[in-house]
Design goal:
Blueprint (H helix, E strand, L loop, with lengths): L1 H26 L8 H34 L4 H4 L2 H18 L1 H4 L20 H4 L8 H34 L4 H9 L2 H23 L5 H26 L1 H16 L1
Subcellular location: Cell membrane; Membrane
Pfam family, one: 7tm_4
Main location: membrane
Amino acid sequence: MYYFLAVLASTDLGMTLTTMPTVLGVLVLNQREIAHGACFIQSYFIHSLAIVESGVLLAMSYDRFVAICKPLHYNSILTNSRVMKMALGVLLRGFVSIVPPILPLFWFSYCHSHVLSHAFCLHQDVMKLACADITFNRVYPVVLVALTFFLDALIIVFSYVFILKTVMGIASGEERTKALNTCVSHISCVLVFYITVIGLSFIHRFGRHAPHVVHITMSYVYFLFPPFMNPVIYSIKTKQIQRSVLRLLSRHSRT
């Protein structure tokens, strides 16, 4: 679980470091321009890290499934090497799958307005400015979302169906509560992530006539809310993290 938490924290930190420079540049320094190459690279990292986070949440759901449904085999199934392979697979899926739609952005010609809708570069925002055939760039992300976000969410739901079935079979009410309590943090992070993803997707697909401030607000919520909430959720629910934070704070107060 701690390996997956480390990858999740790194992903959230990467998303923040990727988006905040341009956001602060616009809001604080009034910097309204960004080079084409920097824009495309930012778009690449934004979307790849989003896919990585979805994969990490999926891997964590498998961790909870094994811990509750097959507790006696937990250490033999989730060995250190296997967890490392899972983490590597999640990273490769995120950083490789987003390459095909991003690469064409470098050789498209841009004759439309060069004004973006957000303070950072999103693929769906940038491709609309191109004066070229963007059919592939329209179709590929839809397929990619179906094979990553939608499929990951579906597998997570199924894993919790089996978890609930196993938990309901436990005779002791106290043991049932204890087992479910180990899943609360993960469920909370899943809801925070997928609700913001669905909200932003609906705004882009069906909110063409919505005020521009709604689009801006939803994009900020999507990119800033999960990285802010995930550490809070796990700090509240994980005793080991609580003790480490309290130890760190007490050390600083003594100095």
